[in-house]
Amino acid sequence: MVKFIGMRLVHSIFVLFGLSILIFSIARVMPGDAARVALGPLATDEQVQKLREEMKLDKPFPVQYYYWIGSVLHGDLGRSLYTRRPVTTDLKEFLPATLELVLFSFLISVVFGQITGVLAGYFRNSWFDGLSRLVSYIGVATPAFAVAIFLLLIFSYILGFAPTIGRISLTLRPPPRVTGFIILDSLIAGQFSTALNALKHIVLPAASLAVAHIAQEGRVTRSSIVDNMQKDYVAAHIVHGIPTQTVMFKYLLKPSLIPTVSIMGLDFAFILANAFLVELVFMWPGFARYAVTVMLNKDLNAIVAVVLIIGVAFAVVNIIVDIVVSFLDPRIRLLRKGG
Fold first, then answer.
1. What single-letter DSSP state applies at residue 32?
2. Which residue, 18, 90, 103, 223, is most buried by CB atoms nearer than 10 A?
3. CA–CA gap between residue 290 and residue 310 (Å, rounded)
């Protein structure tokens, strides 16, 4: 297993290196002058040229990449032309907010997706299976921002159950920053009322992001369970008098989760990369909103950093998925040991 993880890490490094070249090239050939965009239309040509020289934009492309990758390897992602701060400072501020939202959304999708999928598979062709199938089609087809607006109208404006915008209420004092996760930081600081307030703020945006993935993961789990129910070993267990519930939860559920785990990993990275519309609806000060903003402002250093962060997320999630699948399926472990 250690050898396998090491090989995957090496492969991921090469993938990220290729991704860095690709996104660096795309960012440089995008229409418009990044220096002019950063300084505005009132800047003189001398000021624009000076900034171009500072950013090495007057150098050939290989030279630009050489300077950039050297800085990245030393932990310097450059300065943002939009915020006028180091990109690493921006990431430290905005990334934890989105990670907290994504983790909460992922938890919701896993719990409700698996409950729905297992029950639909166990009671296949029943009214519950039909209803869950209909709801899943609606969930997959409805954009997350539309779900966000609907939940906002129902639970915030009509019922008054949940707050509308932000991570915590403006009247509360934020906890000392430790992890950047407000709920966790509030619990560490003993500010339990702040933690509860932050939990109320995160429920609606997290649910908005989770709806489509609950539907998708539920359908995959249901299909996998129904398919595995046709296997000979399941029939043998039932013939030998083992209760159906025991067969379902002891022998059938584990192999049925293998395709779902793969979907879960992709869903996690997908939510991270596509949360910007939901963050916009709820005015969530997160990484996804920051990513869209810097792209619209042709902020070269920030654009490359954002894409690399998303690439790292996909690489790490894929490694974790492979590890989890190998534990769920002994055949994969045996093949890797044999290889």
1. S
2. 90
3. 13
